[in-house]
User: Fold ethanolamine kinase from Panicum virgatum.
Amino acid sequence: MGSEGRGWNGAGDGARGGEEKPTTTAAVAAGAPADVPTSAASVDISLPLPEMTPHIIGLCKGSVKGWSSLDSSCFSIETVSGGITNLLLKVSVKEETGNEFSVTVRLYGPNTDLVIDRKRELQAIPYLSAAGFGARLLGIFENGVVQSFIHARTLSPADMREPRIAAEIAKELHRFHQVDIPGSKEPQLWNDIFKFLKKASALKFEDNEKRKRYETISFREIQDEVKELKDLSDLLRAPVVFAHNDLLSGNLMLNDSEGKLYFIDFEYGSYSYRGYDIANHFNEYAGFDCDYNMYPDKDAQYHFFRNYMQPDRPSEAQDLEALYVETNTFRLASHIYWALWALIQAKVSPIDFDYLGYFFQRYGEYKKQRESCFSLAQSFLSELRNG
Assistant:
């Protein structure tokens, strides 16, 4: 699924603005750097863009240095993108010098706290920003953030498969994995999957058709699969890194004139396994059509791995093979994660999308790839024990 699928499409709904609420620790203050302005203002996501405009302008005036005294007529706002996890707005100002400057305002979609840990995201953003990743954090409010504007184009799935760009993504991902985020370094992947499983297995659907499809799902089977996959992956002793966890084409941007690649949107970021982050990225080669035949073959994966490992040392055959096995084992975990995510979205998302269908698609792909991926890992571990 692309960013359009994992975002909240609010272009027609906009937001009802400016409701003042008591500041909540998780939404505003927790993890926020001391020098970034915070506000208890909330933007109610239900009214058209024109009605939300005064409140968005007010948030930007309080976040961007030098904008507080500007007249509201200096501002223009346009929708950049949206899906179920956020709505992105571009806010531009024509200053007295005649120069135009822009920032982005990201509004969280409804019920996204069920699948996104905002506290974890806010803790990570300043450190990732300091390392040169993503947009600079300018302000935080109750249900969103103000960030600098990135002048670049969003990649397509076909771009990601292009060898030159794949090499750059690999190098940048290696650098991303070196960022140290304070706090616990315990991997969160399986914790998150088990949380999703618990929520997904307790859903109630009023719609008869949805309920019938939902009732065909065996959560006992899924739980057994998750436990077996976790036990197998634990034997691989994959390195733990701070992972992006959602490196689809919509979260990759490229400034062609400067040759600068950007990673954006760290909503799902956490300490996790190196191979999971790479495998999740490879699964996104499937693109918006979910064509998993686009998953990279071994040669394409090795091209990515060599560029990923390049800063550390020359890529030795055993290192490449170990990363190959690690990645293709966690390939299964990625399908399970987003399948369970989709079930929760099927219940809470306001967007008209067949999330139940997406669950069956991802879980079906898990079952299709399970035997070959398990066999690959088991053979590799056997060789290690005997070698």
Observations:
- The longest strand covers residues 75-84.
- Residues 306 and 369 are 24 Å apart (CA to CA).
